[in-house]
Design a protein that fits this description.
It contains one helix and 23 strands.
């Protein structure tokens, strides 16, 4: 006679139906409750895995440039062996914001070879080389930067071009803003510099425009270096200090409008031929045209 055969599983499902759990197991050996729970959990998870893998073909992929991925925000950099924060590499449109630095061996924030940058809300103090360095940086705007006791609050050099500094607050240090001779077309607006040992702003480049600058208690308020040209200064206020506006020989195209000085020992020292001054008020100081210190 034929011997009976043990069968495991269930009959095929009808079309359109899907098993929600493991097949019923008919065997001669009993199955523990733990194994049953594990099998049912695996079948339940399988439904979701099947759905997720089926959606892979519908994923959307978009191309990104290097500037779309990297921004610098809410960074605190202290006592590093070089710059606190260095931004370099491929230029891209990205914000540099919310950074605070102190005690770094070089600059607090150094930006090199960048374009179309938005740099704002930086707080920099006590770094050994300076606060903010802008090196080969073009077509960018810097606003809301506060520096304290930095050798140079902001240093622009190596062909930086078409830059704007707005709302700078610089206190202490050697010089507030230093514009090296290869820098062109800088605009400084709405800024205050206080208690610098050498100069509030030292201009060596060409095409510098100032509109709304106050320099207090600094040895020299505004100094225009030899070789600088096309400097336009409007609404500049100089308070206290030894020298107010100082221009060197070998400078051209200097135009000053609405200069106000108060309590500056020597409000104006001019060695630039053809400098034009329109409007303004000088209180408690003197003006000199010719050799500095002559009167």
């Amino acid at each position: 006679t034929d011997r009976p055969v043990a069968r495991v599983g269930r009959a095929p499902m009808a079309p359109g139906r899907e098993r929600s759990g493991p097949p019923e197991r008919r065997s001669l050996a009993p199955r523990s409750a733990t194994i049953t729970v594990m099998i049912r959990a695996a079948f339940a998870a399988a439904k979701f895995l099947k759905r997720d893998f089926g959606e892979v073909e519908h994923l959307q992929v978009s191309e990104k440039g290097p500037g779309d991925f990297v921004s610098h925000a809410d960074i605190k950099a202290e006592r590093n062996g070089d710059n606190g924060v260095l931004v370099s590499g491929d230029p891209g449109v990205r914000p540099i914001t919310g950074i605070s630095t102190t005690g770094n061996k070089s600059y607090g924030v150094s930006i090199s070879g960048q374009k179309n940058m938005e740099i704002h809300d930086l707080t920099l103090s006590g770094d050994q080389a300076g606060g903010l360095e802008l090196n080969r940086t073009t077509d960018s705007k810097v606003r809301g930067v506060t520096t304290t006791d930095e050798p140079n609050g902001v240093f622009l050099h190596v062909n930086s071009l078409n830059m704007q500094l707005d709302g700078m607050t610089i206190t202490g240090g050697r010089s507030g803003i230093v514009v090296e001779k290869t820098t062109k077309n800088l605009l400084v607006t709405g800024s205050t510099i206080d208690s610098t040992r050498v100069a509030g702003i030292a201009i060596g480049g060409k095409g510098t425009q100032i509109d709304g600058l106050t320099v207090k208690n600094s040895r020299t308020g505004v100094r225009v270096e030899r070789g600088a040209g096309d400097v336009n200064a409007n609404n500049v206020t100089l308070i206290g200090g030894d020298d107010g506006l100082v221009t060197s020989g070998g400078t051209t195209g200097i135009v000053v409008k609405n200069l106000t000085t108060d309590g500056v020992d020597n409000a104006l020292r001019n060695l630039s031929s053809g400098m034009q001054i329109t409007g303004g008020t000088i209180r408690g100081g003197s003006t000199t045209s010719g050799t500095p210190g002559a009167g």
